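Hi all, posting the design record for the shared folder.

TITLE: backbone redesign
STEP: 1 of 1
STRUCTURE INPUT:
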């Protein structure tokens, strides 16, 4: 049966109206926003998940405090010793760069740590030891490790784009060196340093000398001073939450002071003079007596103090804004030493 031209036009127009209504009902959001369109287009073929992962570069796991460092021997000031195993005469350590929830005592932060603590566990070896450190990166961005004060071969020095490619998220790098020279050293990130160090990515590295030292002392402590995103901290804590050091009258203590921060910290001890016996791990030919020690960023110093009187003594940074908040409350870089009879 043949239709007239007018009938064919009406039929076509009617079909278009029906088709338009069907589209309107099925795809009410079509064309509303580009985001909705890409979501609708990718649902059902699995590509949506991929797109979500791509967009979620900042979405990474933050581990609970203490993760990775449980069970180690505790140092007196609350730090921990790094565990190692011996393989063919090599001391093998593992450090994992790890985001954790960390409390400086007054505030909870997201810290970036080695093995879950600020500072990372103390690497303690003997001069001449062959040391291997397997570094794994669980941060959301690349990192590297520099062995501050150590006489390593150039390829092990941990400088991104200069001595090695940065360790990508999920990657690892194996450092190996002979432990020398002896003394108080540090390890720390050398990538995006202001941010990564500011968030806690550092630790202490002590190389015990092969020959006995001319000093004698009863106790030994490491005090790692930092500033940055975590605030002003000694061993990862801010006063009044810095861990008190307890000594008996007559005892002599050796303190290994380290400034891993970005600012100068003149550390002043109340009530006593100390003997500076080493700078950057190296023994001084003649000890210096003082009660205030300017620690520049990157400095380490070893000092001896004999406590001949009881009391609750403070050792603090003398830049007042590092020890007092805007309301006049004491905070930050204050270490308490309790000396009892
Ligand atoms: Cu200071």
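Okay, here is what came back for every position:
SEQUENCE:
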């Amino acid at each position: 049966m043949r239709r007239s031209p007018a009938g064919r036009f009406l039929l076509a127009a009617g079909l278009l109206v029906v088709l338009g209504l069907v589209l309107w009902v099925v795809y009410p959001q079509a064309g509303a926003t580009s985001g909705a369109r890409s979501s609708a287009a990718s649902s059902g073929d699995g590509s949506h998940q991929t797109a979500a992962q791509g967009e979620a570069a900042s979405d990474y796991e933050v581990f609970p405090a203490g993760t990775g460092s449980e069970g180690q021997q505790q140092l007196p000031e609350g730090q921990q010793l790094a565990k190692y195993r011996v393989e063919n005469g090599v001391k093998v350590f593992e450090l994992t760069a790890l985001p954790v929830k960390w409390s400086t005592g007054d505030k909870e932060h997201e810290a970036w740590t080695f093995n879950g603590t600020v500072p990372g566990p103390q690497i303690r070896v003997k001069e001449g030891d062959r040391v291997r450190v397997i570094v794994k990166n669980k941060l959301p961005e690349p990192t590297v490790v520099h062995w501050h004060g150590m006489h390593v071969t150039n390829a092990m020095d941990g400088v991104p784009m200069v001595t090695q490619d940065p360790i990508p998220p999920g990657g690892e790098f194996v450092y190996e060196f002979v432990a020398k020279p002896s003394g108080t050293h540090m390890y720390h990130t050398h990538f995006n340093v202001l941010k990564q160090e500011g968030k806690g990515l550092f630790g202490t590295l002590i190389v015990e000398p092969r020959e006995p030292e001319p000093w004698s002392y009863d106790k030994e402590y490491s005090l790692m001073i930092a500033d940055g995103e975590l605030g002003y901290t000694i061993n990862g804590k801010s006063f009044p939450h810095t861990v008190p050091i307890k000594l008996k009258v007559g005892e002599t203590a050796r303190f290994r002071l380290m400034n891993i921060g970005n600012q100068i910290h003149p550390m002043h001890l109340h009530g006593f003079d100390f003997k500076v016996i080493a700078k950057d791990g190296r023994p001084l030919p003649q000890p210096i007596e003082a009660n205030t020690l300017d620690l520049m960023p990157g400095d380490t110093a070893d000092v001896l103090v004999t406590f001949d009187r009881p009391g609750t003594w403070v050792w603090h940074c003398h830049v007042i804004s590092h020890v007092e908040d805007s309301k006049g409350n004491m905070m930050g870089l204050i270490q308490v030493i309790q000396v009892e009879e």
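COMMENT: Residues 41 and 47 are 9 Å apart (CA to CA).
Let me know if anyone wants the other runs.
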